[in-house]
Amino acid sequence: MNNLVIRYRLKYLVALVIMLLLLTMTTGLTLYLLDQQKQAARVINVAGMQRMLSQKAALHLEYVIIMRERNVAADRQALSNALQLLQSNHDFLTMRDGEEFVHLNAELSAWYFEQPGDLNNQLNQYLSLLSSTAEQPSLDQIQEIHTRSQLLLQDLDHAVLLFEQSANTKIEKLRNLQLLMWLVGLVLLIAEIKWIFFPMERSIASAIERLQQTRLKAEHANQSRAMFLARASHELRTPLQAVLGYLHLHRESQREGYLAQANKAAQQLKALIASVEDYNRLSDEQQPELNFHPARLTDTLGQSIATYRLLAKEKGLDFSYHFSSHTEKIFECDHERLSWVIGQLLDNAVKFTDQGVVSLSAWVEPSSPEEDELNWRFYCEVEDSGPGFDMAHVNAPPTENNSDRHHFQGLQLGLARCNLLLAIMSGDLTFAARQPHGTKASLSVPLKRLPEPDQVNGITRCKVLLVEDNLLNAKIIEKMLESLDLTSIHASHGGQAIEVLAHQSFDVILMDLNMPIMDGFKAIKEIRQTLALSTPILVLTANTSEQAIKSAMQLGATDYLFKPVEQDALERALIKILSVNDA
């Protein structure tokens, strides 16, 4: 916005400067024109005065001769004044500036100094004649003066005409120049309108439109976030209800299988919490990052089934599932998001089926006819006997008007997020109607099959420094490390960890980020810069902010895991960073 204001201000200043220059030039030209007119009027006035003075001097001389001795002194003074003024005016008209005449153009110069006019010579002779005759006048001289004065008057008349023509020519040129300046100003004004003001107007209109679109997007985002928050607690209650339900069943029957089902439901709850982060990324127009890791497909499918089998039972639905034998193998993919997508299909199947059945079938096949040991494809079908749905409702955005009919609900992400995640994983999702009613959802995802892991994990007898401020979390992680035959020391904040590291060495450091006294960011920086240790640092944090993880990695962290941390994920991460460190 600031750049836009600066750009408009510069354009406006350029337009003002151009108009100011044009106005200054026009004003200067007008003043120059007035000055030229004034000077031309003076020259023409002086030239016209020469005609009158030439005749006035002759009349004064005649009067001196006629009056003889009476009032001769006064008449002679008047004659002398006329002759001086005549000479002064002549000097003014023939004045030079260097070698150029000030008031004479080429035609006037020829008239004054060349034949047939030779006005300069005529006027000098006339003045000389008047001066000499005034001392000893005679009738012959008077006759000659009269004749010369008539001839001089005609030449002076022609000179005045030439002066008028010269002045008119100059004024006409100046007027044409003034008209040209007006035309230039008009052209500049049109150019400013076309290339400055019109683009400025379009830019302002475009900026206003972008602001309006941004405002509408912000309003839509706020509305979506409000709808999301309003439904989040409702949707999170489904796996939470399964967890509580299985724990209740365990308390009553003491069957260990219920604990396993509760754990699977908790995994589904974790997947839903992860979807919140994906929602934020989608809101910010960012693509979610996949977390590929090896796991058994039966465990991935079990997380979704554990949650919705209990919900289907409570609704009185017949819930069934079938896995092929290959699903027990280990495959690499983003198991957490795949579980979420399958959970969404089951969620909608159970939610919109009031009576009847909900079934799930899953199998894997090699990608090529030859049984490729690495590249496989996972297939899953979820069928229900519900009322079915209209694809127009599936593709429509969730609103207050259609939310009750929208087949994909969840955390108000639904089909859009399913399709996005499957597109990132190079998978696909299709829907088909069942007869006489119901829906079949089919998805497929490419997988990479991995060999069975060795029993020895390769990280035994390693020493771990756990930096965690939450004592409950610390106890849980310590138990996980103990089950992996790893010894650990607990530090409750970064400052305490620095003190421990100053006296002891460790094979790996597990670092929380948000802690009192000294947080994980500063602790990582101290470890890398002050202590100059290269010990691998595995960040364990509930802060899923991309900026926070980026900052930690830039400070020197080796890898990261988001809480809640599973033992399998922790083991894989430790094997990964310790194997790299040993290499």
Automatic annotation (TrEMBL):
The keyword rRNA processing does not apply. Its EC number is 2.7.13.3. Signal peptide: none annotated. The keyword Nucleotide-binding does not apply. GO terms for cellular component: membrane. Keywords: Kinase, Membrane, Phosphoprotein, Transferase, Transmembrane, Transmembrane helix. It comes from the Bacteria. This is histidine kinase. It is a multi-pass membrane protein. Its main location: membrane. PROSITE patterns: HIS_KIN, RESPONSE_REGULATORY. SUPFAM superfamilies: ATPase domain of HSP90 chaperone/DNA topoisomerase II/histidine kinase, CheY-like, Homodimeric domain of signal transducing histidine kinase. Residues 463-578 form the Response regulatory domain. GO terms for molecular function: phosphorelay sensor kinase activity.
